[in-house]
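Entry details:
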Amino acid sequence: MFSIANSPKYFFKLLILLVVVGFIQSCSKDQPLPESLETETYSAKHLTDYYTLVCKVTKNTAGFFPPQAARAYGYISIANYEAVRNGIEGAVSLQSQLNGFSQYSLPTLQLGVSYNWAIASNAAVAKMMVLMYDKNLKNEDKLKIQDLESSNLNELSSTEAADVVTRSVAYGQAVADVIYNYSKADGGHESYLAPFQLPYTVPSDAHCWVPTGAAQNPLSPRWGSNRPFLVNNVTKVQPRMPVAFSSDKDSEFHKEAMFVYNTVQNNSSEQIEIAKYWADDPFATCTPAGHTFAILTQILQEERVTLSKASVAFARMGIAENDAFIACWKGKYDYVLIRPVSYIQRYIDPSFKTVIGTPPFPAYTSGHSCEIGAGSRILTDMFTDGSGYYPFTDYSQLQFGFAARSFQNFNQMADECANSRLYGGIHYTFDNDKGLQVGKAIGDNVNKEIKWPAFIR
């Protein structure tokens, strides 16, 4: 008996159907559109120019203390990545990989038409910057963002068809809208308006943090409950307190405080310079995360990487820095540990003074150490064979009046940053050691738990 299933026409139609379905599915699985140039064909200059501006905007915008700054860098970086990743071979959306992101729908691409990923990037980053700094963004800085966006667009669209430009701009802006909506539910939305998260009462136990300045409240006490990008970056990295608090002169804790005291009393001129170089005070600089991003930006510029590698690098760093501050702040307010200056003045020497100002939050662990530890692992994975060996000179602090500093590898850089907090008299050694441990674990998680493109230039 003849069956339609045995008809040559049936098989031909079935084959055509499978080809069409396969094509549609391939477009929905984060594959680059064949009509569009790949992301690696574009320069990263417009993007690195933005991160230079992000540093300046962070410094100028009220309420952007280190946690708030790291958060802004994180979401800006994710928006850029999602705007360009369809043009990166093997790139997978972060939507299914980041905590809480899957419930937000990214814009879809039109089939059979072209996109310019650099133009999409330009639109996404510009819009995301305005959204993240929003209500406290100074008009002069908003104009700088708009001017940079316009200048970039003129250059990037000079040889592009008008419909491609319009479509690419719309796509980048739509991506930014989604990422911004995602950010609004993480616990840090508009935190720059009330960064101290009052009311908050500090416990009064002897081991607890006390103000180190007049009428001082501790910064962002609930930041540790914010939603991290990777759950393991908070739940799997928290260290225990390595030394029990004690005012006894023979105790390990007292010895730790004495070590800080003696270090500050005998600092060399270079150690004092190191303390000040890495201080990265908010509103005087672009914060610790901004310093690490500035180093990354400089290296990307020096290596003249394409938009693909720059986008992946910034996304990795943004995720790591954001989560490093959440994890660190959770530890700070779990333990609410007294700062060395307060302990020393209370139990050792009432006249003791630090080299740099003590920031308004508990000691354990060191925020600088956490963030630089995370950043060092991202840099190591992006630019070395895993050894961390990468001789470079950091010129990023020239803008703040410091001489450049040189390093043989990213581990040396991280160690110096962590030690700077000891030289400054504001952290115990275990704050720094455990902070580095937490940060490096977070950086490793970002490198390994997220599916990043296997090869990028």
